[in-house]
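Incident review: delayed structure delivery

Summary: a single-chain prediction request sat in the queue longer than the usual turnaround. Root cause was a stuck worker, restarted by the on-call engineer. No data loss occurred. The affected request and its eventual output are reproduced below so the record is complete for anyone auditing the incident later.

Affected input:
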Amino acid sequence: MPRKTPFDFLEFRFARITDFLLGYRIPPLEMSFDSTTLEPLGLSALRSAQGYYELGMLVECEASLQELTLDERQRPESAELQILVGLDRKDYRQALASCDQAIRDFPDAPFGHVNKAYALHEMGRTAEALEVLENAHLVVSVEAVAIYNRGCYLACLERKSEAVFWVKKAIRLEPDLEAQALNDPDLSAIHDLLEDR
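Output delivered after worker restart:
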């Protein structure tokens, strides 16, 4: 039986956000340990940043992001982490700048578009948020969160019938969104229409 170490919790599964938004996952991390220091050997700054983010440790996540190698900086996961940290800190301008960079670097990855729209919506620029998702339709068309957010933005813009269509489409793709939709303040104008499924 393998020996347990203090670092067993470091089997990072960045699935909660990355798998949902990007549809892929970083391969599982294989680590070895130096028994004199109990430091993981080969633990990259990117995986450290991901782990810190998943644990809600934003200061440590940002510090790890600063230590990224050039190869790690060029990965979509690091771009997404930069965005997510900005969003979690409610620093929407920084998140928006990170989204714009991610869209330039990874135009076919949905996370830049989805998070840019979210940041704009949070800044009170909902019409622009909707435009981002509409312009990126081919990239985000099968992403339940993008479809759901599109419905939210339409509802906020008082385009109720369109909002209902998109939210119901998102729920068909991801049934767990139904409970969220019925309690989402952005969808308050269409809650009664959603209950008539």
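Verification: The beta strands are 32-34, 39-41.
Action items: add queue-age alerting; document worker restart procedure.
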